[in-house]
# Entry
Amino acid sequence: MTPQTRKKPERRTSPLSRERIVDAAIGLLDTAGESGLTFRSLSERLATGPGAIYWHVAGKSELLAAATDRVVTIALTEGTAGPPGGIHDVALGLFDAIEEHPWLAPQLTTQLSHNPTGPVTTRIFEATGRQVSALDAPASSWFTATSALMHYILGAAGQNAANLALARDLGPEADRSAYMDTVAGAWKQLSPEDYPFTRAVADQGLEHDDRVQFLAGIDLIVAGVTARPPAAQQLREGRARAAEAEPPASGRTSPR
Amino acid sequence: MTPQTRKKPERRTSPLSRERIVDAAIGLLDTAGESGLTFRSLSERLATGPGAIYWHVAGKSELLAAATDRVVTIALTEGTAGPPGGIHDVALGLFDAIEEHPWLAPQLTTQLSHNPTGPVTTRIFEATGRQVSALDAPASSWFTATSALMHYILGAAGQNAANLALARDLGPEADRSAYMDTVAGAWKQLSPEDYPFTRAVADQGLEHDDRVQFLAGIDLIVAGVTARPPAAQQLREGRARAAEAEPPASGRTSPR
DNA sequence: CCGTCGCTGGAATGTCGTTCCATGAACGAG
DNA sequence: CTCGTTCATGGAACGACATTCCAGCGACGG
# Structure
């Protein structure tokens, strides 16, 4: 599968390399979107044929995985400078990476699902969890806290990137503020009977600064991690509630 | 586009209807996976040709949106029975729906991104937020809390569904417990220097009950929503921290 | 000087979403 | 009862895609 004899990388000067292919793929994804990455367009950009690419890359999914891995690794390693506010650094690093590469969010959820033990997933989990373990919280809550943070970061950052893309569609000079007002306006049109909450939120206005909004969510989860006294007890309560929430039907996987 | 004259639904007895098409699509997705839904396979199952389907449905994306909407609506309306533990009901309703329909998780993130004001997104936001507003928390934190919960629910439930699918690949009799042990085993193989946190989490063992694990995350976020005293102040701190976290480079969208 | 092997790129294959069109079934008008 | 119009059907055709195949290239070891 993989080219075995990569022993001396300087055998030639301008060959097609896996790195060059991944670079071109990232550029194509950034400029033309997810659907813009084609083996044809990639061939054209690299001035070669589709067949040549397959010598270095197994297929499209592996190419996407490699591109995702590259971008995530960069985003995670460059932001680890400042000593305080560790979680904010990791979160904003991913937030900015997803904003620059909107295709990243769907790709990351795909990686999470199809390959949970893969390098991308593990890297994000490790980077997030390391900041969690620096918090004042019992180790028994680490996994739960890291999961919550990771899913929020990925989901909210993806949402933000999507909002930006839609804001651009709204008009050339429209920024996120204008788009958020559009969303709030759409929410106010909803039926008061069926959507009281959404209308109430729209009435009080949506935060216009994306990073402030994003970090507010991070801080909210962090508050949940640190502020609660008995973490182990909480988990026991959760177990009891889960059992109680499933009274009669259907033998699922859980009722151990 | 849409068939206007749907006035009298009983004009004929066994016609191709949008409902029948969506039903068949859901069945196909459940049994054959995301890639199993094809207009050809759908035609075959409905004993017709591809062209006929396009009379009722605009295209594949609309078909997927309709299928997603159907499943989400059912999941959200049936679990709204019990009076207490409202968030758990909503969360478990979505959790179970995603577990039964593993294709739902990717579809939901797609809906969230491509159509944030669409019915699916709004429905989930409303259902989640209604339970948030019942909590003891200031209204200014509602949006943030609802976002955090929604992204966690979708992400964690999708992760769980993916784990189940991978556990089935592990062997016919393997359940989630066996798979979680496999993951923990893989994590223990990681480099102690690069992945100290992940190894530490693996050492203390992973919760085997999926619902308990899931609800622990819900409770953690809920604790963050309720337990912190000054929500408005927190947001102001977040704004200050955001400004401080971006000292030198690159004019982004936020630094207003 | 020649054969081999890593590597290339263009052609070919099969499947997909989508469009087109010839046909049929119901129904109101004459 | 008959005909034209409308709604609806389904099979065939089209273009784009990922992937595979294969005939060749160039450099290096013999």
Observations:
- The mean pLDDT of chain B is 85.
- Chain B touches chain A through 93 residues (CB under 8 Å).
- The domain at 18-57 of chain B is CATH 1.10.10.60 (Arc Repressor Mutant, subunit A).
